[in-house]
Records
---
Amino acid sequence: MSEHTVRVAAGSAIAPHLAPGAVICLGPGVHAESLSVEQSVTLRGEPCAILDAGRRGPVVAVGVDGVVVRLETLTLRNGAWEAGGGVRLSGWSEVILDRCVVEGNEASLAGGGAGGGIYVHRGSLSLLDTDFRDNRARSGTDLHVTGAARAEARGGRFGGDIVVTEGAELTMVGSHVVGS
C-alpha cells in the first residue's frame, strides 16, 4: 500500500480517512456509515464489502466542487434522503462507480422522492458495470439525472426506472434496463 492508502475493517470509522488523494480499502463486511465526501478519494471494496447508511442519509453525498470520487467493487445500501438515497451528487464534481451494486436505497423523506439509487443535479457521473436493484423513489427509482448534469453508463443492469430531465444528458452503452 502507498502512503495514501489505508485499510479499514468493518465496524471502524471511514470518515477520518477521507483525505485528499486517499485510497481507502474497505475490508469484507458491513461498514455502517453515511459519508459526506469533500475530497478527491477512492473507496475500494474488498470482496463482500458493504457500505450501509442505515437509513441515516445518503450512502455517499458529494456536494462540493472540483473533486473526483471513485467507488470500486462496493455494495451501497440502505441510504435514505429526499433525493439520492444511494449516491447524491449536487456539486460540480465527478463520481465514478466501478463494478458496484446500488441496492435497497430510498428517496422519499420530507416529501422528496427523486433518485432512489442515485441523484445527480450537477457534475458528472460514470457507471461502469454497476447494477441497481430494489431502490425506491417517486421519480427515477434507480437513477435521476437533472439540471446541469451528465451521466454515462457502460454495462450494468438497471432493475428500476431512469429519469433524465431539464436538459441533463445520459449516455448508455451495453446496459440492460428492466424498468423504464
---
Amino acid sequence: VSPMKILWLGWEDQHTPARVRAAGARLGLDVTIAQVADLQFVADSGSGRVGVMLGDLDVARCFDALAARTFYPHISEALTVVGLFHQAGKLVIDESLTDEGVTLSKMHDYLMLARAGVAVPRTWQMADLAAVERLAGELGYPLVLKGIHGSYGAHVHLVRDAAHLREVWARYQPGQLMAQEYLPAESDFRVICVGYRALPALVE
C-alpha cells in the first residue's frame, strides 16, 4: 500500500520542515513541504492545463491531503489551493478553511468573539488616518496598531504618541491596520483551534 501523500503548505524556517518530515516518517506518511512561491497557478484552456502545479505535479490530483499553514501575504493563493483540494474530495487541515465564507482576518475574529459575548480589547479597523488620530485621542496612549493579517507578532506596533502613530501608519496601505486599546499583561494566553476543537495553551 502506498503511503498517504501530504502537501504541507507552510512558511520556511529552520525547524518546522525538519520536524514535519520526522513526524511524517514516524507515521509512515509521504510529506512534501512547499511554499506558495514554489507553486505555479495555471489557467491555460488551450493546452488543457488548469490548476495549481508543483513542478510537474497537479497538487489537487497528486496529493491525498493538504495541511495549509501559510497565508499572509498570499491569502488568496492559499485559499485557492484549499478550495481545489476540497473540491477534489481531499482532506484539508484545518477543515474550517473549507467552510463557505471563511475569513482570515484578526478583525473578523474580534467581531465574532465580541458578538458571542467574549470580552475583547476595544478594536477598530479604519482606513482614514484622521479618524484613527481622533480615536487615539479618546483611548489615550499607548495604543496598539496591528496588521489585519499576520502572526508571531509581525505587524504589531505599540504606539507611544501621535507622531509615532503617523510614522507607523505611513508604512502601510489604507485598511491594512486596525487600532486597539493597549492592555498591559504579564502573561500571553493562547487557544489553538484545530477542527473546531480548542486546544488551550499558556505561554508565559
